[in-house]
Design brief:
33% helix, alpha+beta, SH3 type barrels, single chain, five-stranded antiparallel sheet, 115 residues
Length: 115
């Protein structure tokens, strides 16, 4: 049914065998929309992911961090894929590096941290 509607909507071929409308120019709006989608959605996400990977690779012992669960603590030890975070006196937890949402700069309070 849908194919019949499309067939009726397309203009008949001209004498030269070419369809009216110009062939490749019919796809220009679609190509334009894909390009816009790439620059609005995909490119910024790739940039944010690159920044996040650089932040995770730069984690050092002694830095204050915010975990994805909202826990704030100080990095005690950095391992290959995990970090040990001191969250209270005599309380340490081991979490994946990917659980670190943000590094808190020196002198910055948790209230000043951007979410």
């Amino acid at each position: 049914m849908f194919i019949q509607q499309i067939a009726m909507a397309t203009p008949p071929a001209t004498e030269g065998g070419e369809a009216a409308g110009g062939g490749a120019f019919q796809f220009m709006p679609i190509i334009f929309m894909v390009a816009i989608f790439y620059f609005i959605m995909i490119r910024p996400q790739q940039r944010r992911e690159k920044e996040r990977k650089a932040m995770i690779a730069a984690i050092k012992s002694g830095e204050r961090v915010v975990l994805s669960s909202g826990i704030i603590g100080e990095v005690a030890t950095v391992k290959e894929k995990t970090v040990i975070v001191r969250i209270a006196e005599n309380t340490k937890i081991e979490v994946l590096k990917t659980a670190v949402a943000q590094i808190i700069a020196k002198g910055e309070t948790p209230e000043e941290v951007k979410s």
